[in-house]
Design the sequence.
């Protein structure tokens, strides 16, 4: 017997329950619109949507149906993000592993994202090889991430900042970096691009040296690391890292929180990516804190984009304050 899909089962249940729901609760047009929007979000056939709309269209419904003059009060249908090219199966669960992971989850059945760096650029996760080996048991090939920051402190060297672009100056006036705990010369945007480019290059080569590789890398952009008050400097770091990964045929995504991204990168910056002469979008992954799996799934449909025009591919959440980070693929 052929199994019904989730959409078919849900639609069938709604059609069967619709008369009693309508008479018992008096569904409003907003509630009807939300039900139909969810069906569209999960790509239900229009014939199914029409059947559900008809079943919900009894005289006991307190507000007119969506095709009446009252459509202005109905919220816009929920839409799924564009996950074209995503390595993650929609709806699958996964985990992210790092240099300070305290306990390891069961790898079977899900996906895993493994940290190459240990919290900062040019500093590496000494568990990378073993965590990558664990991630091989997932249902999806492992993907990777690296931490980025602006060029302050001991890693802001001429070696990391003098190429591939030729810069008139590497540093300007001094500035105080709270995250680095000192006063440092402010890097130029040109030198910052080189720093990001070489940070990704160094991480990529380090990963290869221990037998680790992936066609997709995330860039971890968080305010706990050192960033300039000049967003042009930070944007250059991020773009430089993406550009190096693209030269290796690797697509990059951004992990951050909306407010962090705005503080670090500004509101207008849209990272550019080109692989095999094709311009592609930069997908995003962001955390929502302690939440249920249902709430995390809803965030896929309603979450604000970090970057204009960039799809949300993963939502990170915690089942409890002490749980290992979990993720759901959009």
Sequence:
């Amino acid at each position: 017997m052929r199994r019904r899909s989730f959409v078919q089962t849900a639609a069938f249940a709604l059609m069967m329950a619709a008369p009693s729901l309508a008479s018992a609760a008096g569904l409003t047009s907003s509630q009807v619109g939300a039900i139909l929007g969810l069906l569209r979000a999960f790509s239900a056939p229009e014939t199914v949507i029409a059947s559900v709309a008809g079943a919900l269209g009894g005289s006991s419904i307190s507000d007119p149906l969506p095709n009446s003059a009252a459509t202005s009060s109905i919220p816009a249908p929920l839409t799924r993000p564009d996950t074209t090219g995503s390595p993650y199966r929609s709806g699958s669960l996964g985990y992210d592993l790092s240099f300070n992971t305290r306990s390891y989850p069961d790898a079977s059945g899900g996906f895993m994202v493994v940290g190459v760096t240990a919290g900062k650029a040019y500093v590496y996760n000494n568990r990378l090889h073993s965590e990558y080996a664990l991630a091989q048991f997932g249902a999806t090939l492992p993907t990777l991430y690296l931490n980025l920051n602006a060029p302050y402190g001991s890693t802001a060297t001429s070696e990391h900042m003098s190429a591939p672009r030729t810069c008139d100056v590497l540093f300007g006036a001094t500035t105080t970096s709270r995250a680095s705990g000192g006063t440092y010369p402010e890097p130029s945007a040109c030198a910052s691009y080189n720093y990001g480019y070489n940070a990704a290059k160094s991480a990529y080569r380090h990963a290869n040296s221990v037998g680790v590789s992936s066609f997709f890398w995330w860039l971890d952009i968080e305010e706990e690391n050192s960033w300039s008050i000049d967003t042009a400097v930070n944007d250059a770091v991020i773009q430089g890292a993406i550009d190096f990964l693209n030269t290796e045929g690797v697509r990059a995504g951004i992990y951050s929180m909306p407010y962090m991204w705005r503080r670090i990168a500004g509101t207008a910056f849209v990272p550019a990516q080109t692989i095999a002469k094709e311009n592609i979008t930069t997908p995003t992954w962001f955390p929502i804190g302690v939440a249920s799996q249902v709430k995390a799934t809803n965030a896929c449909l309603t979450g604000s984009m970090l970057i204009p025009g960039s799809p949300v591919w993963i939502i990170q959440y915690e089942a409890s304050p002490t749980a290992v980070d979990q993720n759901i693929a959009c």
